[in-house]
Write a structure and sequence with these properties.
Dna Ligase, domain 1, about 25% strand, 2 domains, globular, five-stranded mixed sheet, about 30% helix
Length: about 475
């Protein structure tokens, strides 16, 4: 399978990597190993760890950090940024539409049952007008580059509670600490202002009439796998980190308990899933949410970022329709391509998928984090046959895609410097305008030949440089 090398083109170093390559050739293996040990020590000291969901031992792990950055030239980033703005704008218009006029369904562009029987669709959101019409205030869009044509593809849209931005910020701080000379030699676009952009976005969507909004970050608590990120972002933005028990609803307003007495809350950046947000409206056994929150939200007295019900737009069963959304709402051709997708609920697509299982990636439509999927080329015959039975039992639960040969970037591994597959998650903020820090989180599959970059499955991260 042909692989696009981010650093080299048929052996020659690509122009945007030339200066870095000259620097890299002057580094010894001992120097790099020492710097990596220093990075691990610093990350552990700061507490940059994550817990794996389902790991009953409760152990916290470091996400492996790679010393070799992924470098993106200015012209490539300009294309990506235009495509990301277009895509996120269309997704927000789609969310407003399916909870209001339903024009896209009436026009027959997306089948009604795909939207309204979707587990992520929230009937409670029907008819609620949100400030600026924004539902997905923070979007993490997963981008890959295919080896065959070198083109960028969107692999997934994350619109519920996208995570990982703290690693983007900490990776940059680490690289500047370890290798300050590199930032003298390269004009790298900054990312440190992301928390300021995030706070500006959250303040921009405050309820009508609120000029100086109180913003809080709602976390499920310290046992959540992304708790480090929650504490980090709250601290960076200068807002309170709260749990459900710290908030209460009175007269359709949300208040925070403080040592000076109750304080009204206007915007909640929530890192808690829909089901757990309000035990009176959703799961009655939730201890993570705030009783009455939905009523206050429907009354327009508080704003949630991201909105409830955004999951219907990032569900894998809706993903194939995003290019149609862009044409329907914006009258434009998509700048970023989707990966070709077979919807197994369709008999023809199912038949084709079953025939080509060893060559395909098959994903659960509600799955996440690399779980509940089959990577055909990397699976045994037994695994493929077991998955075939699951697919036949519930075809509507799955989509299939070709196995993309994700682009590769040089990575410092035990054996030295070797190519490893990568993806990119830029973070797109929607408020009064659409903004983003240049770059995003580059995730890397550290096992040789592996295409799974998720941290829960053994992946690591790199600093992402966009050259100015």
């Amino acid at each position: 399978m042909q692989v696009h090398d981010e650093m080299r083109d048929e052996g020659a170093v690509r122009p945007h990597y030339e200066r870095f390559q000259q620097w890299l050739e002057r580094q010894t293996g001992e120097t790099m190993a020492r710097k990596r040990a220093e990075a691990d020590l610093l990350f552990r000291r700061v507490g940059i760890t994550f817990a794996v969901n389902g790991d009953l031992s409760g152990t916290e792990r470091l996400i492996p950090f790679d010393l070799i950055p992924r470098i993106i030239p200015a012209d490539e980033w300009a294309l990506l940024e235009r495509g990301l703005r277009q895509r996120v704008q269309a997704l927000n218009l789609f969310l407003h539409d399916v909870y209001h006029e339903r024009n896209i369904v009436r026009a027959g562009v997306i089948p009604a049952e795909q939207v309204y029987t979707n587990a992520q669709y929230r009937p409670e959101m029907q008819g609620i007008d949100l400030p600026l019409g924004v539902y997905a205030h923070i979007a993490g869009i997963d981008i890959v580059r295919d080896g065959r044509d070198g083109a960028f593809y969107v692999l997934e849209d994350n619109l519920r509670v996208p995570s990982g931005v703290s690693y983007m910020l900490e990776n940059r701080k680490m690289m500047m600490r370890l290798f300050p000379e590199l930032f003298v030699q390269h004009k790298v676009a900054p990312v440190a202002h992301y928390p300021d952009l995030l706070l500006e976005t959250l303040r921009a969507v405050a309820p009508e009439g609120v000029d100086d909004p109180t913003v809080v970050l709602l976390t499920p608590g310290m046992y959540n796998s992304a708790y480090f990120e929650h504490t980090f972002l709250a601290q960076q933005m200068g807002v309170e980190l709260v749990e459900g028990k710290d908030l209460f609803v009175e007269d359709n307003y949300v208040f925070m308990r403080t040592t000076q007495g109750p304080r009204r809350v206007d915007v909640i950046y929530r890192r808690v899933d829909d089901d757990f947000l309000d035990p009176l409206a959703f799961r009655s056994d939730s201890a993570l949410g705030v009783p009455g929150l939905l009523t206050a939200y429907r009354a327009g007295r508080v704003v949630l970022a991201n909105a409830m019900g955004t999951g219907v737009a990032d569900d894998k069963s809706i993903y194939p329709y995003v290019p149609d959304m862009i044409e329907f709402y914006l009258g434009e051709k998509p700048i970023l391509k989707n990966v070709p997708t077979w919807q197994c609920r369709r008999p023809d697509d199912l038949a084709w998928t079953l025939e080509h299982l060893p060559d395909l990636v098959v994903k659960e439509v509600h799955g996440a984090g690399g779980y509940g999927m089959l990577v055909g080329p990397a699976s045994t015959r037994e695994e493929i046959e077991a998955f075939r039975a699951r697919l036949l039992a519930r075809p509507g639960n799955y989509i299939a895609q070709p196995t993309l040969s994700l682009s590769a970037c040089p990575t410092f591994v035990e054996a030295g410097i070797a190519p490893r597959h990568i993806d990119l998650r830029p973070f797109v903020l929607s408020g009064k305008t659409i903004q983003m820090a240049a770059g995003g989180l580059t995730r890397v599959a550290l096992k040789e030949g592996s295409l799974v970059v998720n941290s829960s499955q053994g992946g690591g991260t790199k600093d992402t440089w966009v050259l100015e």
